[in-house]
Hints:
Elements lengths: L1 E3 L2 E3 L3 H19 L3 H8 L3 H20 L7 H14 L1
Antiparallel strand pairs: 1-2
Amino acid sequence: xxxxxxxxxxxxxxxxxxxxxxxxxxxxxxxxxxxxxxxxxxxxxxxxxxxxxxxxxxxxxxxxxxxxxxxxxxxxxxxxxxxxxxx
Length: 87
């Protein structure tokens, strides 16, 4: 028990574990602050994600409609892209 002026302070298990947790989280945040710039370089841009998604969607639609109906592929892609842009 710690007495400071008119106040008595006690250190319970909850207070001790909360203090340890807060110290660990704060120290990890400050220690890893420089790594954030390195991690951000690993995440692709929005344009890169959109391009990769559209190419994957093109491949999936092409596989589903088959070779005989491939002439309608651009129509399907155009129609679904218009639907996605309206939402």
